[in-house]
């Protein structure tokens, strides 16, 4: 009596045909090629514009994977914003309470808020009145509306700075380069009245005059106030107003990596455990004995 | 190792009630450990940069 055993391969159990694999692979290669060509064409179009792209600066918060913002710099940046930028730019999404325990103590933040006048009301006679600011107030707007802002600035609207670092290509690198990048216009470019040449600004002609010069601010903490120091501090401040949860997020990243890898290992082990029976089984069959 | 495993099993995982208890206490201890240690590492990496490092300059 002769017994014949046949063995089925894993791929034939699962019913996957090799032909389908090769079709998928060739399809994938062609697809990647087309996508790559599209990306290359798109990039070459971008490279034709004449905007000067900002270099990557060594910000403290970028030097390490878990680095926070430099909060001492953010505090100085608030001073620069208040004394210089706030003359034209609003920050209507930032409130004084956000300074508390981030850059200022509660008393200091209350004192900062009390420096502004806020229109409140109506009172019991129906009239609006002015009162000193409170912690819950937002940063003051230098102009009552956009039209007034345009009228005061040759038709150019000074953008709200709350989220400006997130809203511009290049982020804080761009803002820093813009603030420190004012130069004389090269030959052949005419600069009209109320315009200034800045190679980092798209188009090159910007309606904002250079605002930061050496020692235009006297820092509370005694840091030498060079123009680049002022620009660095105000960029850190704008980064913080755009992402006030940045520091917390960096801590979360660390915890997510630890918890995430534990969950990944558990899932990986569970999958191997569940499939171990299926993966290691062999299917045998006995050939039917034929009658001679 | 085998002795340790069987002791653990007999003490902690044999009954459903002790298993649940082990899971709850284990989760609590694990979370406290991870939170405290990541906070310590984070503070060490960013020493001198956070508000709590500079606030003594401004508090009276």
Describe this structure in words.
The complex is a heterodimer of chains A (292) and B (60). Chain A has 292 residues and is mainly alpha-helical. Among the domains of chain A are: 60-94 and 138-246, Orthogonal Bundle (Cytochrome Bc1 Complex, Chain D, domain 2); 102-137, no CATH class. Chain A contains 10 helices and 6 strands; from the N terminus they run E-H-H-H-H-H-E-E-H-H-H-E-E-H-H-E. In chain A, the strands form 3 sheets. Chain A has a two-stranded antiparallel ribbon. A two-stranded antiparallel ribbon of chain A has the order 2-3. In chain A, helix 4 (71-83) crosses helix 9 and helix 8 runs antiparallel to helix 9. The mean pLDDT of chain A is 89. With 60 residues, chain B is mainly α. Chain B is built from 3 helices and no strands. Chain B has helices at residues 2-13, 16-45, 51-54. The mean pLDDT of chain B is 93.
What structural keywords apply?
heterodimer; A: 292 residues; mainly alpha; Cytochrome Bc1 Complex, Chain D, domain 2; two-stranded antiparallel sheet; elongated; B: 60 residues; Single alpha-helices involved in coiled-coils or other helix-helix interfaces; mitochondrion inner membrane (chain A); transmembrane (chain A)
Task: Summarize the topology.
The complex is a heterodimer of chains A (292) and B (60).
Chain A: E1 5-7, H1 10-14, H2 18-46, H3 60-63, H4 71-83, H5 106-114, E2 117-120, E3 129-132, H6 146-152, H7 164-167, H8 171-180, E4 196-197, E5 205-206, H9 227-242, H10 246-280, E6 284-286
Antiparallel strand pairs in A: 1-6, 2-3, 4-5
Helix pairs in contact in A: 4-9, 8-9
Chain B: H1 2-13, H2 16-45, H3 51-54
**What do we call the CATH topology of chain B?**
Single alpha-helices involved in coiled-coils or other helix-helix interfaces
Mean of residue pLDDT of chain B?
A: 93
The CATH superfamily title of chain B: Cytochrome b-c1 complex subunit 9
Q: How much beta of chain B, percentage-wise?
A: under 5%
Shape of chain B: elongated
Largest interface: A-B, 25 and 18 residues
List the uncertain runs of chain A.
Answer: none
Strand tally of chain B, please? 0
Subcellular location (chain B): Mitochondrion inner membrane
Keywords (chain B): Electron transport, Membrane, Mitochondrion, Mitochondrion inner membrane, Respiratory chain, Transmembrane, Transmembrane helix, Transport
Protein name (chain B): Complex III subunit 9
Membrane topology (chain B): Single-pass membrane protein
């Amino acid at each position: 009596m002769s017994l014949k055993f046949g063995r089925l391969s894993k791929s034939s159990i699962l019913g996957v045909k090799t032909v389908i694999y090769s079709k998928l692979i060739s399809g994938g290669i062609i697809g990647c090629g087309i996508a790559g060509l599209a990306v290359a064409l798109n990039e070459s179009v971008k490279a034709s514009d004449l905007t000067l792209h900002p270099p990557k600066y060594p910000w403290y918060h970028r030097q390490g994977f878990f680095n926070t913002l430099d909060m001492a710099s953010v505090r100085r940046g608030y001073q620069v914003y208040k004394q210089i930028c706030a003359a034209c730019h609003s920050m209507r999404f930032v409130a004084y309470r956000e300074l508390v325990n981030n850059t200022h103590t509660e008393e200091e933040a209350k004192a900062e808020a009390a420096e502004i006048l806020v229109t409140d009301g109506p009172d019991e006679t129906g009239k609006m009145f002015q009162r000193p600011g409170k912690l819950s107030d937002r940063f003051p707007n230098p102009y009552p509306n956009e039209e007034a802002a345009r009228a005061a600035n040759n038709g150019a609207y000074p953008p709200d700075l709350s989220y400006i670092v997130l809203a511009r290509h290049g982020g804080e690198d761009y803002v820093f380069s813009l603030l420190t990048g004012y130069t004389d216009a090269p030959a052949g470019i005419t600069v009209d009245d109320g315009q200034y040449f800045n190679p980092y600004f798209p188009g090159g002609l910007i309606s904002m005059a250079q605002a930061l010069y050496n020692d235009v601010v006297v820092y509370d903490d005694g840091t030498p106030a060079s123009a680049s120091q002022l620009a660095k501090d105000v960029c850190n401040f704008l980064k913080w107003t755009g992402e006030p949860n940045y520091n917390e997020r960096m801590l979360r990243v660390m915890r997510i990596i630890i918890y995430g890898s534990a969950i990944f290992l558990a899932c990986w082990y569970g999958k191997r455990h569940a499939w171990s029976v299926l993966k290691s089984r062999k299917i045998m069959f006995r050939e039917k004995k034929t009658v001679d | 190792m085998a002795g340790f495993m069987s002791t653990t099993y007999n003490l902690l995982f044999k009954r459903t009630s002790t298993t649940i208890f082990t899971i709850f206490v284990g989760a609590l201890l694990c979370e406290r450990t991870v939170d405290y240690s990541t906070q310590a590492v984070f503070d060490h990496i960013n020493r001198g940069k956070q508000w709590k490092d500079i606030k003594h300059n401004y508090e009276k």
